[in-house]
Amino acid sequence: MKRIVAVILAISSFCAIASAERFYYFDHLNTLDGLPSNTIYCAMQDKDGFMWIGTRDGLCRYDGRSFIRLSEIAPVHNRTGLVREIAEDEMGKIWFTTPYGVGYYNPKTDEAGNIDLPGNTMCRDLDVDGRGNVWIASHMLFRYDTEKNGMFTYSLGASQPEFMAVDSFGTLWVLMLDGDIYTYDKLNDTFIKQSPSDRIKLIEPVQGGKLLVATQSEEVYLLDCISLSTKVIYKAPPRQK
C-alpha cells in the first residue's frame, strides 16, 4: 500500500512529528546490502513482520538484518523480473505481479508458482479481498478464485483498470484509466458504476469503511463507502501566475 496519496500523508505526518522535536534515524539499504536492485516499486509487511520488497529485478524478503531473494527460496521464481505490486491473502500467501502475470509464495509450506494471464500481459495492480479472490488489473480485470482454482474476466466499459482498493468491508473498488470508478457486487458477480463529482486519479483504503480519493482538480477527500458521502481534507492552493 502504496500510492502517492499515502506518501503525501506519510510526509505530512513526518513533518508534524518533526515539528514536535522528535528525531528519527534512518539506514539506507541498497544492492550492497543484498537488495536485488536499487529501483523499488513496492513494499509490504506480512503478518509475521517480514518486509517484502518488489524491485526491478524481482522480489525479496527482509528480516531486519539481511535480504533474501525469493528465487533463492523458490527456484520457480528465478525469472520473476519486475514486481510492481505485492499483497498477502487471509492464509498468509504472498501474491505479486510479474511481467507476464502473477506469482505466489506460501512461507509456511514453501509452495510457489505462477499464474499466466491471457496474452502474457503485464499487471498494473493486484489486490486480495479476504474471500479467497485475487484481483488483477491488466488490459482487463481478472479474478482468480483460489478455492476453485479458476480465472474469471470482467470488461468494464471502454477503458482499462488502473488501480484497485479493497475497503474495510471487503468491497472491491476499481479505478479505470479514464477516471471512472466501479464497485464489485459479489452477490450478482457484477460491477456497479459509481458517479463521482470529479475525475479520480488515485484511491486508497483507510480504516473506518472509507477511501482516500485524489481528484483531477487537486483535492483529496474521504469517501464513506456506505453512504458515498465525501469530506474534503485537502485542497491545493491556487497556482500563482
Structure description:
With 241 residues, this protein is mainly β. The chain folds into 2 domains: 34-154, Methylamine Dehydrogenase, Chain H (7 Propeller), CATH 2.130.10; 158-241, Thrombin, subunit H. It has helices at 4-19, 70-73, and strands spanning 40-45, 51-55, 58-62, 67-69, 86-88, 94-98, 101-105, 112-116, 125-128, 133-137, 141-145, 150-154, 161-166, 172-176, 181-185, 190-193, 200-206, 210-215, 219-224, 230-235. The longest helix has 16 residues, at 4-19. The radius of gyration is 19 Å and the shape is globular. Mean pLDDT is 87; it is low at 4-19.
User: Helicity level, as a percent range?
Assistant: under 10%
Using the coordinates above, name the CATH class of the largest domain. Answer: Mainly Beta
What's the mean pLDDT score? 87
Poorly predicted spans: 4-19
The main sheet orders its strands as 1-2-3-4
Count of discrete domains:
2
Shape-level CATH architecture of the largest domain? 7 Propeller
Oligomer: single chain
Q: What's the alpha carbon Rg, rounded to whole Å?
A: 19 Å
What would you give as the CATH superfamily of the largest domain? YVTN repeat-like/Quinoprotein amine dehydrogenase
The major β-sheet equals: 4 strands, antiparallel
H/E element sequence? HEEEEHEEEEEEEEEEEEEEEE
Strand proportion, as a percent range, falls in 35-45%
Could you say which structural class the secondary elements and strand pairing correspond to? Answer: mainly beta
